[in-house]
Each structure stands twice: as C-alpha cells, then as structure tokens.
C-alpha cells in the first residue's frame, strides 16, 4: 500500500492517544504521515488532575499545559498536533467551526479520517465530534458527486474504540497490529499525566485486542492491537 495520510479528529486534546496512538505510529513507521486535530483542549471536562487542589488554576493555563502535552504526545507517535479550541463540556459546533474543519480536510487531503463513535452515553462531546466530522467529510468530498465546490477524494472513515464499546454501539471490524510501536504508544500515554488512570486501562485493552487480532488472523506475532470501526464499504478490483 502507498504511504497513507491520516487525520485523527478528537473532541478533546488527549483523546487520540488512548484510542489511536498505535495506529498513528504504524502509519508513520510505514512512511505515511498523520495530523491530530483536537476540537478542544478538554480543559474543563478532561483535565481533572490540573484543577484538583489548585484554586488559582485558570482555563488559559490549563489550555496552555494541555497544548504542550498533546504536542509532546503526538511527537512520540510521529504526528503533528493542531487544535481548533472550540471549548469543551459542552463542545458547541457552529457553522463557522464546521467550515474550519472542511478547510482543514481540503488542505490535508487525508486518505483516512479517524474519529469518535456516533453514540457515547457517558460523554457529551464525543458524539458531537462524530457528527461534525461526518458532515465536514461529506462537504469536503463533494458528497460523492462532482459539484461547484473544491473537493477531494472521499477519505476512508473509521471510529476509534470508545471507553465503553458495548454501550456505545461500537462494532470492531478493523484491527491494527500495533505490536512494533507499542513502546511509542506507551510513551505518548505517559505524557498525559492529567488522565493517569487511563494508562493501565489502555495497555490492557491493547493486549486484549491483540488476542482477538491473533485469533482472527492466525498471526501469532501480534501482541498488541487497536480496534476501529470502518464506516464505508471497501471498493476492490478483486476479492
Ligand atoms: Zn474526550
């Protein structure tokens, strides 16, 4: 396969690390490139460790720290980091914000877009990000037909694994072998000290998904994997 260009869109600046850090690193190892776009810094809802016991903390300072952390984590897996800074909990999508995302998709011309699931009963922002990405992807790719707008080839489109997959209607139909880059994912996760409780959880999940990937493929060398849900059918020249 030709080197791939990946665009990972998260509602909050740390989301990409847990759910797609390994898949990003694999793309980059294979000669491709990746951009992480955060719609917000998760400054209110996902930065508990930065607020706790710190009465003088400010939103601006939390955002600054979260930006630095996300940039560092992204560098461990070889991705560039950008943030639209739309605010979190709630993440509000204006038509201006959607236009910004369309512009970024047109600019990046990704082969693959990876984002949240449509359903997440435990997070108010993740499904909002999914809908925004779905909308912007269609606008950027001319909704599949030639039109008066600038457009790109429709990128492949996946949801990465949510925290509670069964309750978020997540159907894992694509597994990425991340064994060779697991050390990079761990380094990226270690940067996110504001959500330290997630590090062991996502290391265990990668091992469990690795077990599934081994059984599905028969490839005994797979130790760690990430699961995603592909939304668009494959178009192939041969089965
Ligand atoms: Zn999040």
Q: If strands are numbered along the chain, what order do they take across the biggest sheet?
A: 3-2-1-4-5-7-6
Largest sheet: 7 strands, mixed
SSE series = EHEHHEHEHEEHHE
Approximate helicity band: 40-55%
Highest-level CATH class:
Alpha Beta
Report the span from N to C terminus: 16 Å
CATH superfamily: LmbE-like
Count of extended strands: 7
CATH topology grouping = Rossmann fold
Which segments are poorly predicted (pLDDT under 50) over 5 or more consecutive residues?
none
H/I helix tally: 7
Rough shape? Answer: globular
Strand and helix map with partners:
Elements: E1 5-10, H1 15-29, E2 33-38, H2 48-51, H3 59-76, E3 79-83, H4 95-108, E4 112-115, H5 126-140, E5 156-160, E6 174-177, H6 182-191, H7 197-217, E7 225-230
Parallel strand pairs: 1-2, 1-4, 2-3, 4-5
Antiparallel strand pairs: 5-7, 6-7
Helix pairs in contact: 1-6, 3-6, 4-5
The structure holds zinc ion (ZN).
